[in-house]
Amino acid sequence: MTTLDPARPLLTAERRERIGALLQQRGVVRVTELSQIFDVSEVTIRSDLDTMAGEGRLQRQRGGALALESPSLNAMFEQRAVVEFEAKRRIGRAAAGLVQPHDRIILDSGTTVMEMAKCLTDRGPLTVVTNALNVATQVGVGLDVDVVVIGGALHRGNICTFGPQAERAFTDVVVNKAFLGTYALDLAVGLTDLSIEQSSVKQAMTRAAQQIILLADSSKWGTVGFAKVLPLSSVNTIVSDTNLPASARTALERLGVEVLLV
Question: How many CA atoms lie within 13 A of 26 on its CB side?
Answer without folding.
Answer: 24
